[in-house]
Task: structure prediction
Amino acid sequence: MPATVKDEAAKPEESRAELERAPVTAVRPSGEEVEIAQVVTPPPAAEVAQAAAAPTPAAEPKLPTTASPLPLIALLGLVALGGALTLRVAEKRGL
Result:
């Protein structure tokens, strides 16, 4: 005879509410459960205030010009060579 399995899947809203109400505890190395506030120290109020008031940059710094025109010159040279070869082939064919 097959065993009867009861479907007890919790709804997402119910499990979220249960998690929000569940007590959060920490476990010390000795195995003792303590409140999370005893283990975790909150950051100083000055740090929290500085993090909340994020500074906005006044002006973006100008980046240094590190690129050179050499690749553009090489590309123009290749285009000139291609044009010269095209004219030479067109002249030989009599176009």
